[in-house]
Amino acid sequence: MTAAILVRYGEIALKGKNRMFFEKTLLENIKFALKGLGARVVRMHGRLLIMGAADEEEEITRRLSRVFGVVSVSSVETAPLDLEAIKEKALEIMERSLLPGDSFKVEARRSNKSFPLTSPELNRIIGGAILEKYPRLKVDLENPSFQLFIEVGAREAYIYHDHVAGPGGLPVGSSGRALLLLSGGIDSPVAGWMAMKRGLRLEALHFHSYPFTGLRSREKVIDLCRILSRYGGKMQLHLVNVAGIQKEIRASCPAALGIILLRRMMMRIAGQISRSRGLQALVTGESLGQVASQTLESMIAIDSVTSMLILRPLLGMDKHEIVALAEKTGTYEISIRPYEDCCTLFLPRHPATRPRLEKVVQAEAALDAGGLTAAALENMETMLIED
Questions:
Q1: In what order do the strands lie in the sheet with 381-385?
Q2: Contact 349/253 with Cβ under 8 angstroms?
Q3: What pLDDT is recorded for position 289?
């Protein structure tokens, strides 16, 4: 048996002259997401139809529901472009469905304008047939307990009653490429997810302090990348050891500025990697005022070492909102594993929260910033992560 699954997308349809580019990117991403299932993708007016094996329908739906650009998907049944055939199929679906209440609504959409009946006419005729067969039901256009949808396409009609939500947004790859600074915490994976939702294709950069941090923290970040790759495809992960940098900062610089100076070094390294990889921006998980290094003064001091565009998708979100998104995307349980990341090492008792840029630059003069950056990059490890 064959399953038919209708894919709806929203924001892409508003792109005017660029619409074909966004639709093509979405189509490529869907084909990649369905790799190995043998499903076939058919383009329609404002929709995509996925044809696959019936026993793979659940897996197809699950994968489609994680593709950015997809608003929702539905398992559909098809009928010829004939009123009686559409009516018969609608009644079959009603008969098989476990109706949750006593009200219903028919919602028709006619993209094929050569079909002789308008959408309101279809609503009335099919709704009337349902009422005739099920007189206990009533029509409720505002808050029905059951909805039946009919879409009249170019070659056939599609009838269905369920929606599985997708993430929406723009197809990954339609807005450029960026580097995600990925820690092992809650925030940065969510920032990466949100950046991908706006069409960015990501590579990830993780800073570690082995042997001061164990290999489990590395495994944690690899697992986070696997989760993100479900939404954005294969992901390059760059691993950079900053233990040497941290030791130099601790030995030569004021303790209160240690985190600021470390993050400035991280920005230098991230900027160099981005330029060498042809990436256009950096993405971080910072939320304004959440910790000492995320005040405006700290961000100014950190950002001044790079000319790269820095995107902060979580800037205006609080921790409750971020945690809710982490749970939704599947990264939360991995992020709370109790393994240290490099920023928790050598944490000063009283970190500077309002650092003055000139004082930071003065303190940093004790470091060989160029030499430390080069040494860290020389030992960088890169791997390709895929779920």
A1: 309-311, 281-283, 177-181, 201-208, 235-241, 381-385
A2: no
A3: 75
Question: Which pLDDT score, from 0 to 100, does residue 11 have?
Answer: 76
Domain span including residue 212: 177-385
Residues in the chain, pLDDT under 50: none
Residues 233 and 135 in one domain: no
Alpha helices, H only, 134-287? 187-197, 215-232, 243-252, 258-277
DSSP for residue 81: S
- 380 to 47, 219, 339: CA distances (angstroms): 44, 16, 21
List of long-range contacts for 356-360, beta carbons under 8 Å, 24+ apart: 356/297, 356/301, 357/300, 357/301, 357/304, 359/257, 360/257, 360/260, 360/261, 360/264, 360/301
Residue 197, beta-bridge partner list: none
Distance CA(3)–CA(14), nearest Å, equals 29
Whether the CB-CB separation of 79 and 28 falls below 8 Å is answered with no
| Cβ-contact 22, 171 below 8 angstroms | yes
Query: What is the pTM for the complete model shown?
Result: 0.90
CB 15 within 8 A of CB 25: no
Residues 318 and 188 in one domain: yes
